Amino acid sequence: MQQAAIVILNFNGEETLRKFLPSVVNHSSYPVIVADNASTDSSVDFLRSHYPQISIIQMEDNFGFAGGYTRALNTIRGEFEYYILLNSDVEVTPHWDENMIAWLEKRKDVAAVQPKILSYQNPDFFDYAGAAGGYMDNLGYPYCRGRFFETIEKDQGQYDDEVEVDWTSGACMAIRSEAFHRGQGFDPAYFAHMEEIDLCWKLRRMGYALYYTGAVKVYHVGGATLSRTSPRKTYLNFRNNLAALKNNMSPFKWRSVYLMRCLLDLLAAIVFLIQGKGDHSMMIWKAHRDFRKIAKGFDKYFGPMVHTKGKIKFLLWRYYFLGSRKYLNS
């Protein structure tokens, strides 16, 4: 069994690969594998002609981020001790992959670790997707050190540490292959967004720890496949967040949280309407309508409830009513 592989998921991302693969190839020690979600552009031809050393896993359809990764990693199951999952729109830094694997080698109780994720467009600031480690508040809203909702912090060394987190970002994480497959990978029903939160929640319930290390940093563009302003993304975020809560909370906890979330999500839909974003408002309704289709009831299999590692409760109240915009100030 080889030690690790860097696995990049691609769908019609030729231009993104042209821009970001050079940093991956130049700064990485482990082999790179590109899993292609049935692209219709020239991505595969580009890879074959310019990067013959890169292995390609070609899938017969676009299975989304969640299904694409799970199918791809199932095809190489048993070949690598670790997977390093990397978005195609990430610029890496020297020794990034070696350092993350070396970190996991020292912590056998840890399933996955993520680096500091900074913004490619604004390198002095954290990135939206993962920032300095992800958490959940008591109502199931995900947040990060370095990012509360749309407020992004400047990186001033305040998170140059190592901490246990609730979830590691799918934009860039190193994960033990045994843990990934034991947790059944990313649930394909999610298609995209929050599938890593669901998997990480399951892994924590199975007794694994998850960590962030500020000793490694990468730069992420974000929104390369789906903009944060897209109504489709609003739909996926609301639907998949509800599904992750239903999948991982006890029935009693879920009922109380869901009642609150119905009220708060109704308020969010009203705010979207006031802002003239009726399409986003409609997506919240559709998300609530559809989330039960992907809820699987993992609480019956993956073990007991686990407490969140973050210190924030009632994030919406703190953010919008108390004006708390930073993790360290909360």
TrEMBL record:
Domain of life: Bacteria
Pfam family of the protein (one): Glycos_transf_2
Enzyme Commission designation: 2.4.-.-
Keyword Protein biosynthesis annotated: no
Keyword terms, alphabetized: Glycosyltransferase, Transferase
The Glycosyltransferase 2-like domain, residue ranges: 6-116
Annotated family: Belongs to the glycosyltransferase 2 family.
Protein name: Glycosyltransferase family 2 protein
